[in-house]
Every structure is written in structure tokens, then in C-alpha cells.
Amino acid sequence: MVNTKEQPKSTRPVFTSATKSAYGKSSNGTSDNTTGNGPTAGTNVKSKKITTMAMAFMTAAAIISLRGLPMMAAEEMTMFFYIGFATIFFLIPAALVSAELGSAFSGQEGGVYKWVGAAFGKKWGFTAIWLQWIQNVVWYPTVLAFAAAAIAYGIGKPELASNGMFTGIFIIAFYWIATFIAFGGTKILSKVTSWGFIVGTVLPGIIVIILGIVWFASKKPLGFEELTAAETTVATVVNGKVSPRWFPNLANLQNLSFLSGIVLLFAGVEVQAVHASDMESPKKQYPLAIFISAIIVFLLFTFGSLAIAAVVPNSQLKLESGLMQALTTMLASVKMSWALPILAFCVAFGSLGGVLSWISGPSKGLLTTAKDGLLPEKLTETTKAGAPKNMMLIQGVIVTVLASLYFIMKNVSVAFFLLSALTVAVYIIMYILMYAAAIVLRKKQPNMERPYKAPALYLLAIVGILAAVFALVLSFIPPAQLPVGNPVSYVAIVAIGTVGFFIIPLIIANRKKAKAK
Predict the structure, then answer these.
(1) What percentage of the chain's residues is helix, strand, coil (to nearest 5)?
(2) What's the pLDDT score for residue 5?
(3) CA 235, 237, 240, 243 torsion: positive or negative?
(4) Distance (Å) of CA 231 to CA 74, 267, 268, 480
(5) What pLDDT is stored for residue 33 in this prediction?
(6) CA 507 → CA 54, 397, 492, 499, 503, distances in Å?
(7) Cβ neighbours of 225 (radius 10 Å)
(8) Is the Cα torsion angle 247, 412, 167, 318 positive or negative in sign?
(9) % of the chain residues with pLDDT over 90
(10) Largest Cα–Cα distance of the chain, in whole Å?
(11) Using CA atoms, how far apart are residues 277 and 101, in angstroms rounded to an integer?
């Protein structure tokens, strides 16, 4: 996501590798700066300062992806609330707080490992960067499911997009092929990344928004005006008439579950924020850049989601293939159906290119902890090209197990969202640690040099923690919008996965400490 994290979460256009995000839930960026290093870490950086607009576009590019548009579109008019919540209570606090931490530790390898470690000790620093790594691993099956759906439309077999067997096999096969390719290094793959963002995200995104405007202008039927009274999550009945809701139905927390998945789309900004100190006047420029990027993200996510919601009826919208559903209908309306396979492969190229470029990056970030003896020696082995071989193999095994959910779950959209929820739960814990570290470091080390100091840091961190805890709770609640089947099984999978991934780094750190004694 890409995102933060759906990265996950394609890549952004030409900036230096040091200015490219590592973990967003759009699949943007390259793997050169996955540790959140400062501008001097392993990269030849020019002395030219980053401008306000450049930082704004870089931050927006680290977040924007097409994968999350169907999820936001599924919320119909309440999408304004969800996107606004994620922007105000998650994106802005995370960006400003992490910018302070990044500037304070600029030039040092480790990113959140250093930040959290300085506040709470190496064990918790290791836990933070482990969570940042593992959420990326959990995210791979979701972005590859999105790519699988695009491929299905590209080959003229849209029914395969809802086929769990096809999706699961595609994810496993492509991931292992990409893993073995990455063993040879990522120089070639990084070039794919630059084109992936332009061809796979920007181009299809612009086209879907333009076609959406044409759809509105043509006064064609609008999906959000055809809601039924039974769709209580997004519709309400006023004076006997069914109307779309503008505020979520708070009668049941299940109605809010999608909020956790939408928050994931805004994650990953913490790695981009470390470059605030590269600006001429960080104190003035960075908040303005974040404000501009927040507007860009809000508008693009909103217009893109509205376009899909206008074309695809809520009852028919699928999370993994909603974008392709909309493009199919839109292109047919302007007699351009011939362009569908082209756009489908562009979307798939963007997603697959992002995975290829990131497949070794997060593992390299985790390898920075090996210098302090926290990572088991066996896991530090690399290939001749420097790829973290054993860590990548472990990634492959985890991705294979998670992708198997598509084989056993009847609904592909449910499996897609479940993995998104698990990614959120794991990633959110890292953000809570990051916010807490910022508060502690302000108190413990008030005189630490901070080229950028976040305004009202305590308030930002507390708001960020509260929003993160709320999203964490929602990630365990089965969504009312999807046929999850047995809710107990859903909760158990998310809970076991979250607790397991959280405990593993603590066990590793404690064993290393015991051996040292």
C-alpha cells in the first residue's frame, strides 16, 4: 500500500532515487531508499534544494494508486467522509511527525528502526521496522490480485477476475518468478518502475476521470442514483425516496470497516517525509507541501472514485476489478471498446512493475538491523548482486500461504479485503510506535537538532494515535458490504496474523538478548 502502503502502494516519475518512497500502498518508487535513510545514505545527491511543489508532487505520487478506487467507490457519497478522515487524521499527522523524525536522524540508516529505537530501545526499533517490512509482504497478494483482474480483462476473460483459483495461481506464479529475477539485482527493474507509474497509474487514472466527466455530461444513468433501500450502508430512505448517504451509517461498526482499507491507501508517507530537511526552509515549505499534496490526493481519489461509482451499480462493484468494470462500460459508451485490452495491460504493467521493483527493497531495509546483531545471521545472506536471498525466500513462502486464501474463500473480493485488513492492522501498530517515539524524543531529547520541527507535535501525535487505534479496531471487524461468511473465521485470520507478526520480532530480539548474556 503503497502503500503506506495500496503502498503498496507503479512508480512515480523521474526524481532521484533518494526522493522515492519505499513503502507506500501505491506500488510507487524504487527500492533504493527503503530504510528511510537521509539524502546522504548510499546515494549521490545534488546540492539543489527540493522545492515546495516538487515535495508536494513527490508526496502525492507516493500515495496515489488505482487499486483503492473501487473500495472508495463502494462507499458511494460517504466516500467524502472516508477520504477526508484519512487525509486529515492520518496523512497529515503521519507526514508532519515523520518529517521531524526523519530530519533529526537524517544521514543515518534505519528509518523507523532508528526513530523508535532511540525512544524505546533497539528491541522496539527492530519491531517497528519488522512491521514495516511484513506489512509490505502481506500487501503483495492484494496488488497482484488487482493485476490479475486487469490481465483477465486484457485477455478478454473478465470472468477470471472473480475466479479465486486463477487469482491465487497468478499471484504465486508471478511472485516467485519476480523473486528469482530479483536475485540478479534491481538495476533493470528500477527502470520498469519509472514507466510503471506513468503508464500504469497516471494514464489510466486520467482516462477514467475524463470518461467519468463525459458520462456525467451525457446525462447517462448514475450508479449512486440507483441505490435500493436494502443497501443501508450507503443509502437511506427519506420521505419514501431512496437517497445516497453523505455520512456513514453508525448503527453498526461493520458499516465502517472499509475505513481501515481506505486508510491503508494513505500509508507510506513516512519514508518520503525524511526529505523535508532537503528543502530551503523546511519549517515553512514542508507544511505547505503537505497541504498541497493532501488537496491533490483528495481530488484525484475523489474524482476517480466518483467516476467508478457513477458507472458501476453498487451491488455489482467488485473490489479487485471495479476499475476494469468501469472502463469496460465507459469505453463502450464512447465506442472505444478496442482500447480496453490496452488499458488493462497498462494497469497490470503498473502493478507488476511496482512489485518487481520493491521485491527486494523492504528486505534490505530490515537488513540494517543486522549491524546491531538483532537479525539472525542466517537471514543476512545475500546474492552476488546484493539481494537479500533468504529474506526474499521467506517473503515468497509467506506470500504463497496468504495467496492460498484465494483458493479457499468463495468470494475474491472478500479475500482481497481480508488481506488489506491484515496489512492495515500490522502497519498501524508501526505508526502507533512512531507517534509515541516522536512524543518521547521531544521530552527526552528536547535539544536534539531537528532541521524540521512539526507544529503542535504532541497534538498531531495524539490525533494520529487515536485515528490509528480506531483504524486498527475496524480492521478486525468484518465489513457489512461483503459476504464474509463466517465472521468468526474472518476475525480469527486477521487476529492470528496480526498477533503472530507482532510477536515474532519481539521473540527474535529477546532471544538475541538472552544469547548476549
Answers:
(1) 70, 0, 30
(2) 40
(3) negative
(4) 11, 29, 33, 10
(5) 40
(6) 42, 20, 22, 12, 6
(7) 11
(8) negative
(9) 27
(10) 74
(11) 10
Q: What is the pLDDT of residues 331-376, one digit of tens each?
A: 999 999 999 999 999 988 888 776 776 676 666 667 778 777 787 7
CA–chain centroid gap for 477, Å, is: 20
Q: pLDDT value at position 514?
A: 63
- Per DSSP, the three-state class of 210 is helix
418 and 169 in contact (C-beta within 8 Å)?
Answer: no
Q: How confident is the prediction for the chain on average, in pLDDT? A: 80
Q: What's the CA gap between 114 and 388, in Å, rounded?
A: 21
Give the Å distances, CA to CA, from 16 to 13, 32, 58, 96.
10, 10, 11, 22
Angle at Cα 192 formed by Cα 135 and Cα 278, nearest 5°? Answer: 70
Q: Helix and strand tally (H, E) in the chain?
A: 20, 2
State how far the Cα of 205 lies from the Cα of 6, in Å rounded to an integer.
15
0.90 exceeded by pTM? no
| Model pLDDT for residues 397-437, shown as the tens digit of each residue | 999 999 998 998 888 888 888 888 898 999 999 999 999 99
Buried-exposed string 425-462: b where 16+ CB fall within 10 A, e elsewhere: bbbbbbbbbbbbbbbebbeeeeeeebbbebeebeebbe
* Other CB atoms within 10 Å distance of the CB of residue 145: 29
Q: How far is CA 285 from the centre of its chain?
A: 25
C-alpha cell at 398: 509467506
Which positions ≥6 away from 335 have C-beta within 8 Å? none
Distance CA 153, CA 149 (A): 7
Mean per-residue pLDDT, 492-514: 87
For the record, the C-alpha cell of 338 comes out as 478496442
Query: What does each C-alpha distance from 279 to 79, 275, 289, 316 come to in angstroms?
Result: 34, 8, 10, 47
